[in-house]
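Entry 12.
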Amino acid sequence: MRNLILFFIKNKEHFVYLLTLVFSLLLLFNNDNDEMNVIRGFSSDVISLLSTPMVKIKSLAIVNEENQYLREKNLQLNLQLESILYAADENKNLRELLDFKRDTKLRIVPSTIINKGIQANINFLTIDVGLSNGVKPNQAVLTPDGIIGKTIQAGNKSAIVQSISDNNFRLSVRVMPSGAVGILRWYKNNICKIYEVQKNVNINIGDRVITSGFSKIYPPKLPIGFVSGVYDERGSYQKVVNVEIQNDFESIQNVFVVIE
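Predicted 3D structure (tokens):
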């Protein structure tokens, strides 16, 4: 208590000034004559002038905060939408794989691609099934859309697949309904070419291309793609047929291995 009294005594000039100022303001704003009204109006204008920038700054801060929040919500919604669309596509692909496995008469093993690349001049895929699943070298690998390659090496729980997009890949095929046969090789951009096709056969754009059945690796009538172009070779009794592969090699995730 003694310290509080000493504090007031030490700072009495400040307290007297503060009380005088408060008393003066009360007299000023409680007086109703014209001069005081002018002063009060001027004071109000000054206060408004000083407070307006602060209000605008505060409003801008609120707007920026709301914009940041809306940007974050927009990003979250976009990510959720992409996740939903991806799940829908994946669900569709899985349904197609399930339907293919149920409908086919082949003995097949489902697998997932775990790696893609090029090794020793071979364009290859690595799948997550191997000897323990009945997978051996020289077995056909396909999707519901068609052949994508053959196994060339098999470990206990994984296998390497030579892709149809490899330049060294060869496949005996048949063009339907003409029945013309030839050797299929990769060209570029999901396009293959069939060589050694007799020039006198009738082949049209849109004709189906399937495995011929001449190979021990590939059972007959497995899908390959569709004819997208037919060209005669000059000075030859053969023609070249372009085939568009239906598989999208960039997005393939699940395949089947024909084990019998």
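Annotation: The mean pLDDT is 79. The domain at 171-247 is CATH 2.40.10.350 (Thrombin, subunit H).
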